[in-house]
Amino acid sequence: MKYNELQVSANKDKIRVGRGISAGRGKTAGRGTKGQGARTGKKLRATF
Q1: Within 10 A of 34 (CB to CB), how many other CB atoms are there?
Q2: d(CA 46, CA 34)
């Protein structure tokens, strides 16, 4: 196996969120503003 034969996903770095506004994913870190999903320890039950 050679480096150029690897899948693209194998070489991707994880996106670091919540590391400052300059990083692009700071402040709310992709959670949005307010609401249950924005709180720490969010546990949303699956509703069917």
Answers
A1: 9
A2: 20
